[in-house]
Design a protein that fits this description.
By secondary structure, the protein is of the alpha/beta class. It contains 7 helices and 14 strands.
Amino acid sequence: MASRYQATFRIPAKDEDSFSDNLLESGAESISIAPANPGTEVYVHAIMTDICSPGDNLAGAISVTRLEEDDWRHRWLQHYEGFEVNEEIYIHPVTSPAPVEKEYRYLLHLDPRDAFGDGRHPTTILCLTMLHEITASLPPDTRRETSMLDIGTGTGILAVCASLMGTGEIHAIDCDETSITMTGKNAELNGAHNITSSVSDIREFDPGRKFDIITANLLTGILQEHFDRILLLLKPTGTLIISGISTRWGNEMDALFSKKNIYVRKKDTREGWLAYLLQPER
């Protein structure tokens, strides 16, 4: 069984992206970032496999620690702190001892272990921002009558946040059983009892109904392959939020929407990723 190590570096904050990319290209399994000197330096913690001593890819590491097999998978959580999505939404991991220092309208408690989605990825933030935008525009009574489907829910962040914002009926699906287990845990943590979650992929999911809002934070190829199926699950007056799309595929996705007569209500970018707020053309 492979041995794993945590290597820690202290680098200028401006070099965070390029340094992390180099580590991943050198074989790092995961990367986490923690502040050192706020605004100027950060700690980069990398999980590596089968190293005997720091080599070229570990030059400059301030420490290299061997991890026990039952410890390495969650080691990154030591450096995962809560963060603000916008002025009204804050995601707070249950693994963090740090308190939330100000009041937020929507405080989402998250257990990020064992499933994809700790909330910090640009595509998740883009989706959360768009979801908040369209939900905030609805009167409370209308929100309670609104239905939502979250495809590829991960840890359930979008579904839980929608529940906190007053969405009435929410379905969350993922093809990974662990993701659905974590979605259930996170729903319980936040008192989000109106979420129905199930293990399913897009092709198999057949709820016998259509939804007012669909969120799908997926890879570009999956979105393209299953776009027609996603549209079949959306009400003619509904809203579709999609992300997981690199900016390099933007023109290709724009062409797809045009071909399918889909109106791009909003298009936003963050750190090389795209998100779309879409509606069927009426």
